[in-house]
Amino acid sequence: MAEKFMQPNINLNSLIYPYFVKAGKGKKETIKDFAQVFRFSIDRLLIDIEEIKNLGLNKILLFGTGEKKDNFATAAYKKDNLIALAIKNIKKEFPDLMVITDVCLCAYTNHGHCGILKAHSAKRIAQSDFIDSRKTLEALAKIALSHIEAGADWVAPSAMAKKQVEAIRKELDRNGFKKTKILGYSAKFASNFYGPFRNACDSAPSFGDRSGYQLNYTDRNKALLEINDDIKDGADMVMVKPALGYLDIIREAKQKFNYPLAAYNVSGEYAMVKAYVKSIAQSARRIALEKNLVLEILTAIKRAGADFIITYHAKDIARWLIVDGV
Ligand code: PBG
Q: Whose CA is nearest to atom 3 of ligand 1?
């Protein structure tokens, strides 16, 4: 007798839905190559959050966009910065929603790198170490503190600056936030799958690339070392990013560390599914295909060992669950 297939089982509590925020009112902007993902002003964001909450999602990840860019990413940590304001508004209406914030500089620097550059860095662009580590860590700690003071539950440093988790932990502890949590983007690869995201944040580097601080995708061992470091430095959860091409790393990290683990199903992975589905002419087939693809992908990421999945598909999944019980 043929064995019965197990049904994929995606728990909405394990999904984290990313949002791009921008200043202003009444805005819901489309993003190049990023179907059905938008940049929201805070008022419109609250309306969307109401929808996803009603669909059963309870965790979000916030990114700031469209702010003034300068050498020091000042807009990211100034008083009442965009994300701090967004958090305050969200928490007022949805106190039990889990709010995680991305902590990075790339959307706020005028060169698009994830750190503050060393002085005279223009001469050093041929080298890979043009990031001033001390200044970068200070800026990241300030951003994290501003988010936590505004009411965020978790901060997620994604700059791949050495010791970023430790620097943030110290700053939070010093200010009395001993219990707030840090999700380290620990094993973050220099990937070709971040394109739509960089359109969303206008954060593509204006010179060089991120290979000086993000991981080389041929390097398994380095990924595991970075995860180990973040755990030692006080991360409450670690992450592998991207997810789909990195299931081996997710698996190994889970087995080796048995630590809370998130995987980021990134923008290019999402866009591939959307592009494939769009190429199907018949609409009924298109809808079924999208659902099946997404369930298979997320099941694979979970099966590999991720406890949480950050995914732009989360809202669709929640809808499918309610409409057809997936
Ligand atoms: C960088 C950051 C990136 C993403 C999240 N934070 C990409 C980058 O290195 O430019 C990508 C997420 C995605 O592609 O969905 N701080």
A: 194
What are the pLDDT digits (tens) for 263-314?
999 999 999 999 999 999 999 899 999 999 999 999 999 999 999 999 999 9
Best residue among 20, 39, 158 to mutate for probing ligand 1, ranked by most atoms within 8 Å of CB: 158
Find residue 156's DSSP bridge partners: 102
* Ligand 1 centroid, distance to 238 Cα (angstroms): 16
Tokens of 139: 């800026």
Q: How confident is the model at residue 326 (pLDDT cuts 50, 70, 90)?
A: low
CB neighbours of 114 closer than 8 A, spacing ≥ 6? 104, 105, 106, 131, 136, 158, 159, 160, 161, 210, 213
d(CA 266, CA 102): 14
Distances (CA, A) of 68 to 11, 36, 235, 293: 38, 25, 30, 38
Residues with CB under 6 A from ligand 1: 102, 104, 106, 114, 158, 194, 197-198, 203, 210, 266-267
Q: At what angle do helices 283-304 and 267-278 cross, to 10 degrees?
A: 150
Q: How far is the CA of 293 from the centre of ligand 1 (A)?
A: 23
Distance 255 CA to ligand 1 centre (A): 26
Closest CA to 197 of 50, 290, 275, 312: 312
